[in-house]
Amino acid sequence: MDKKGKIYFIGVPSGGLKLMPSKALDIISGADTVIYDNGINDDIISVNKKGSSFSGGYDKNKSLIPDKIKEGKIIVCLKAGDLFITGKSNEEIETLVSSGISFEMIPCFPNFLTSIFAGIPLINSESGSNCAIIYASEEDGIKIPKDCGTLVCYPGIGNFRVIVEKILNAGYKEDTPAAVIKEGGSNDQEVITGNLSNIADKVSEKKINPPFLFIVGDVVSLRDKWRWFDNKPLFGKNIVVTRNQQQAGEFGRLLEEEGARVIEFPTIEIVPALNYQDLDEAIDEIEKYHWVIFTSSNGVKYFFERVKKKGYDLRCLKGVKVCAIGPGTAKTIENSGIKIDLIPKKFLAEGIIEVLLKEDIKGKNILIPRAEVAREILPEKLEEMGANVNVVTAYRTVKVDSGLNKIKPLLENKEIDVITFTSFSTADNFISLFSQDELKDLMRGVNIASIGPITSNRIEKAGLKVKISPSEYTLEKLLEEIVEYYEKRKN
Fold first, then answer.
1. Which residues contact 284 (CB under 8 A, 6 or more apart)?
2. Crossing angle of helices 424-432 and 453-461, rounded to 10°
């Protein structure tokens, strides 16, 4: 039986990817072709890893559809905003129906509900119990309902003042509260409030153009009290995360929860060791070791991958004490089902040394699975204390600069508020991308946030100043320090 083609119309909310339904993302991911309206963010388009994509929307690319449908292909048409409220998809659906082409509609989070993110309800018992939604493109005859509690309007390009005048002519008072919401629900959200006598001038002064949401009614006055989204401490701040791509998402989500606009610019990539002979031999002889010291989550990950690859399980560590630097490393170990014997209070190699000074480690065998290149202070000090130390490569940290063409213009235009460095290697590799003079010029006005003295020392050695550095070397504490830094400047 021949596979039948189908086209999916998917609405894309102004809040972007985080407001997309999971079904929509699944379909986008597996589509053969993605057609999208201009202005739709790359992060949504990049969900598709399989097929080709075409900008310009349905009208520009409709000639592609019949042949691809005959070939049994799945086509996704991404439409900015609400599918049926604005009427923009009606003619397209009629064409598909008359052509016998199979289609499906997947609505998005309705743009009129993004008023939630502005702290403006559409209906409030004290402000009236009804709400009218108006779509007003330039060519439409705009009809304004009278005596409506709340008006929600989708203005067309160039006719915002006309809409305001028609609302006033319909009997609404000049002092009726009004708000314009641009990019509602996104980290680019902008809200302008006023009343019908001044809202058009305010929008003009801010040079804001449709598409945006226009709300008229007493409900707008609740924004000052109900505002919750765009008053988060990091709202509107552009924060760069330099962690490797596999681990950047965790920290990025924490920052986004506080309102930040996160820009991922990994300066390192974590890759397997070139040769696992030394690590494999250590695993084969694991019973001879008294301690295994893990200095990073990556060391844990690659160590246990090799344990499994060689046919062993967790029982091979029976009788071996396990030490972890930092809560992140400890959490990774515990998630593997291993009990931890030692976590030093200082999340540095020096912290382990201080603790093991109290232990009798003379003649003890200690295994340290770690990155190919790392600080030597730990094995050197342990050997000075009489231990037999075996350092083996579990993984490598390599420099990457694939996002340089994206980040450099942002730095040049002074659009970056904070750059975060969570390890020596992220800082070292970032610094190596630029000459000293260029680095100082690009980083002027940028707040640098760093975890740990080793990382901070590398940054300051390059002639830069660390503004934000937590006393506890964790992502959570770094986030707290960034939030506190900006909250102090608000007050």
1. 310
2. 20
* H or E stretch at 44: helix 42-45
Q: What is the pLDDT of residues 179-223, one digit of tens each?
A: 999 999 998 899 999 999 999 999 999 999 888 999 999 999 999
Partners of 120 in beta bridges = none
Sign of CA dihedral 208, 211, 215, 216: positive
Q: What is the pLDDT of residues 324-358, one digit of tens each?
A: 988 888 889 998 888 898 888 776 777 778 878 77
Q: What is the DSSP letter of 47?
A: T
pTM listed for this prediction: 0.82
Of all helices (H) and strands (E), which one includes residue 105? strand 103-106
Q: State whether 51 and 90 are in the same domain.
A: yes
Q: At which of 357, 377, 397 does a domain end?
A: 397
Question: Does residue 232 sit within a domain?
Answer: no
Check residue 86 and give its pLDDT.
Answer: 64
Residue 314 lies in a domain: yes
Q: Which domain holds residue 358?
A: 271-397
| Residues 280-326 pLDDT 10s | 999 999 999 999 999 889 999 999 999 999 998 888 999 999 999 88
Position 288 scores a pLDDT of 95
* Spatial distance between the Cα atoms of 400 and 416, rounded to a whole number of angstroms: 20
- Return the CATH number at 134: 3.30.950.10
Token pair of 191, please?
A: 């809200």
Cβ-based neighbour number of residue 312 at 10 Å: 15
Give CA–CA dist 383/129, Å, rounded. 77
Total domain count, the chain: 4
